[in-house]
Design a protein that fits this description.
Chain lengths: ~290, ~290
């Protein structure tokens, strides 16, 4: 109905606000990108560095030439993300599917057992002591096991499974499938949207983690990318950790290239999954 | 028994996740005991001596604890009045956009920063605000000041970067709720002569009020634990006076000073306040005749 109407003052205001908001988000990201690909001469003479005037891969070559262990850390991060996402999805989807059966005896008690952890936790110190006592320190398991299940994600999946028509399973039962076969042959294939969305949430959290790695990893060559970035930029420990000088302006450019390497993989995947953040998936989690 | 046998496969599916919860969520809860002990790694839970409320008394006598406590409350309230309503407003704006391509592009852009880690967001803004080489230096020239080490500005830095990163993604839930309002309601109101603003006030807002309330209760419940990753990556000793929060305080005392029991006491106190706030908010919702979260 409003399509036929012409642009009103209100429309101008709305479009302007949203456009300005989007620009505010894009500019800092854009500037990082431009600087990381600029040649050193252009970077030093350009005040704003907002319009790309040169194209150079020097800093990326340095990063992948393994200065500061960037390539190694990237490889570790990929490993952590792959292992962690697989583990999280197995635990979460199996549990969520079982809990989606409303007539399962004991379901409500089990569900409260899980929900309670969203509101009360023992805190950081006992958690740290636990992981140490399990002998996970300095292993990849310390980065994927302690946060393997997110109750929020589990609720999202449970509600999605609950919304599937029961007739599907009844038909499969008549064909002689047992409950595990039904899960793998019927349920999983039609649950791609929720698997995509929840895998993304888990994957991004694993890719972005620096906290567990700071707590539990001691060996420099086992640090994921985020920890290296933190040391290099936030703690400015470049000289100590990486062994190259912080002076010289192309250190700035090198940092920017590393920032891009640290965020681009996630940003490339996310738009493909965005369409699955639909009504059913997102609302399910709050309504429980 | 027959019932349980019928569901045996479902119980098998539940076993791994239940074991995980028992180990990683419930075992640390037993660690509450630590706060009442003089805990050392070598003696463990079972052999560390009990000392009663010693650590809580020490905590209450500690100035840094109170500083962190009040900073947490002030920053949390500041966030509550900004980071909570702003996504609702953005969602209302987006809901008015009929140009589908524009709408999708804005959504893709404003969700984007949610997926970037706080390490990287902090890195971006640290380089951005660098008074010598950042964009801020290019704009303000010699008047550029170092925003990130100024205690008076630090809370504003936290709020604005939090909005930059999360305000867009925060709209997802409200946009989903708005998609659930039937178009008949809009049509009926339009026939009754409702203008655009009236539609927002009398159809859209009431349609999402349930979700707003639930989000509000959930926000209250996590308010004291809000923003560790952000503060930890942005702060430095120069801004502890306005920026140090309970979680960062606990983190520093536990790990750099190895005061395990002392930090555990602070952690328990925080957890307890969170539960009280959550239960309180839920009661309030129910007293108002609305659906709570449990």
């Amino acid at each position: 109905m409003s399509i036929q109407k012409r642009f009103s003052m209100a429309d101008i205001f709305i479009y302007l606000m949203l456009a300005v908001g989007s620009l505010l988000i894009l500019i800092p990201l854009w500037r990082i990108l431009v600087i990381s690909f600029s040649s050193q001469e252009v970077y030093l003479t350009d005040t704003y560095n907002l319009i790309p005037k040169s194209f150079s891969l020097t800093e990326y070559k340095r990063a992948f030439g393994n200065i500061g262990g960037i390539a190694n850390a990237l490889f570790k991060t990929v490993q952590i993300t792959a292992l962690g996402t697989a583990l999280s999805m197995i635990l979460t989807s199996l549990g969520a599917y079982a809990l989606s059966k409303s007539d399962l005896p004991g379901r409500n008690i089990i569900f409260r057992f899980l929900i309670f952890t969203m509101f009360f936790s023992g805190g950081l110190v006992p958690f740290y002591v636990l992981v140490r006592n399990l002998n996970l320190i300095d292993t990849i398991w310390a980065l994927v096991l302690p946060t393997a299940v997110s109750t929020y994600n589990l609720i999202i999946m449970k509600n999605y499974f609950s919304s599937l028509p029961p007739s599907l399973e009844e038909a499969a039962k008549i064909d002689g499938y047992n409950d595990i076969q039904i899960l793998f042959k019927i349920i999983i294939p039609i649950s791609a949207p929720v698997f995509a969305a929840v895998s993304l949430f888990y994957g991004v959290a694993l890719w972005n983690d620096y906290f567990l790695a700071t707590l539990f990893i001691n060996s420099n060559d086992r640090f994921p990318l985020q920890v290296i970035l933190r040391q290099m930029i936030i703690q400015d420990m470049v000289t100590a950790e990486v062994g190259i000088s912080t002076t010289g302006s192309n250190m700035e450019q090198f940092k920017m290239a590393c920032i891009v390497i640290g965020m681009v993989p996630v940003l490339l995947i996310y738009p493909f999954v965005q369409k699955y953040f639909t009504k059913g998936i997102m609302l399910g989690a709050v309504k429980e | 028994m027959k019932q349980i046998a019928k569901y045996k496969y479902f119980y098998f599916m539940l076993i791994p996740v239940l074991i995980w919860y028992a180990i990683f969520c419930y075992v640390p809860m037993y660690g509450v005991v630590m706060a009442f002990q003089d805990f050392t790694m070598s003696k463990g839970f079972f052999h560390s001596p009990f000392v009663g409320l010693k650590h809580f008394e020490a905590l209450f006598a500690e100035e840094d604890f109170w500083r962190a406590f009040w900073n947490t409350i002030i920053i949390a309230l500041y966030r509550l009045v900004t980071a909570f309503p702003i996504p609702i407003m953005i969602a209302l704006l987006l809901n008015e956009v009929r140009h589908l391509k524009f709408r999708k592009s804005v959504q893709t852009i404003i969700y984007l920063p949610h997926f970037i880690s706080w390490v990287i967001v902090a890195s971006i803004f640290i380089t951005f605000f660098n008074p010598e080489s950042g964009l801020i230096a290019a704009i303000f020239k010699d008047n550029a000041q170092d925003i990130l080490t100024n205690p008076e500005l630090f809370r504003h830095v936290l709020i604005s970067t939090d909005l930059w990163k999360e305000a867009g993604f925060g709209t997802v839930i409200y946009i989903a709720a708005m998609a659930g309002i039937s178009s008949e309601q809009y049509e009926a109101a339009t026939i009754d002569g409702a203008g655009r603003w009236a539609l927002v006030r009398h159809v859209t807002l009431p349609g999402i009020s349930g979700v707003i309330l639930i989000m509000f209760i959930l926000t209250i419940g996590k308010i004291l634990g809000w923003g560790f990753d952000q503060v930890y990556n942005f702060y430095n000793p120069l801004v502890y006076s306005t920026g140090d929060i309970l979680d960062t305080y606990i983190f520093r005392t536990a790990l750099s000073d190895s005061k395990f029991s002392f930090a555990a006491a602070a952690g328990i106190l925080k957890s307890l306040i969170c539960v009280v706030l959550l239960v309180g908010a839920n009661r309030m919702a129910k007293a108002m005749g609305r659906e709570g979260i449990y």
